[in-house]
Design a protein that fits this description.
Number of strands: 15
Oligomer: single chain
Structural class: alpha/beta
Helix content: 25-40%
Strand order of the largest sheet: 3-2-1-5-15
Number of helices: 10
Distance between the termini: 35 Å
Length: about 260
């Protein structure tokens, strides 16, 4: 068999790995679960290291089912909007606050008042809701200030996984657009939004287009997964953006509806 493409999807309940051949046919797949924590009503958190454990299991499981072939490239998708606060080495300082966490309602009201709803919609394309990343950063600043001051980088879930795979800090435009810190029209993090919310833009990773090579598989990660060092890793996409492309929602007209599990 020829070269294969590996897709890794970091979901809320588990990690899925797919091996696809050059014609787009899925030749093998495997899933591995990881736990979710709800320490208080309305809170939802996960330990990022559990994502890595599940990723190793999912990728190795898919490779074991494959009829053969070398993995030529890796693509990432995953749950959006979560906040992984890390030190300069990419080590999480606390559990990830997930997309379905509702603790930051007060910070949403404050942020909308500070920015102005019309300007927020113009730049970011959405209201400030607790599911998004920016209000999670503001909540941590208010309630865990020592941790927030220690944060060198704020990552989205699949982008923390990218760092675990490659040692590189990076995101891409679809997931970045779900932070509410992104200038969607100009496809870059917004200095204006960061300034108004007093979030240091240096704590946000470089942003790539989804098909671009963002990083390459490190030696340690390659050994853990059973792959070759240096395999390119594409920017990838948030799960909803990737799902839209996969179902053909790539032009005006077609519509998809996502209800969730």
């Amino acid at each position: 068999m020829g070269e294969l493409l590996l897709g890794i999807d970091l979901g809320t309940g588990g990690v899925r790995a797919l091996l696809v051949d050059g014609s787009g046919r899925v030749v093998a797949s495997h899933s591995a679960e990881h736990p979710l924590s709800t320490p208080r009503p309305g809170w939802a958190e996960q330990d990022p290291e559990s994502w890595w454990t599940a990723t190793v299991a999912a990728v190795r499981g898919a490779l074991a089912k494959s009829p053969g072939g070398d993995v030529a490239a890796i693509g990432l998708s995953g749950q959006m909007h979560g906040l992984v606060m890390c030190d300069a080495k990419g080590v999480p300082l606390r559990p990830c606050i997930l997309w379905c966490d509702n603790r930051s309602a007060a910070q949403c009201e404050e942020a909308e008042a500070r920015i102005g709803l019309d300007r927020l919609l113009e730049l970011a394309g959405n209201r400030m809701l607790p599911g998004f990343t920016a209000p999670k950063i503001l909540w941590c600043r208010a309630h865990e200030p020592d941790l927030e001051r220690a944060a060198a980088i704020h990552l989205l879930p699949k982008d923390w996984l990218r760092h675990r795979l490659s040692g590189t800090f990076a995101t891409e435009v679809s997931d970045a657009s779900g932070t509410l810190l992104f200038d969607c029209a100009n496809r870059r993090f917004s200095e204006e939004l960061c300034g108004l919310l007093e979030i240091d833009p240096r704590t946000l990773p470089p942003c790539f287009e989804s098909p671009e090579i963002s990083s390459r598989l490190s030696r340690d990660a390659a050994a853990a997964l059973g792959l070759a060092e240096g395999v390119p890793i594409a920017g990838g996409g948030g799960d909803q953006a990737a799902q839209a492309v996969g179902t053909g929602i790539v032009r005006e007209g077609p519509v998809s509806l996502t209800l969730g599990t």
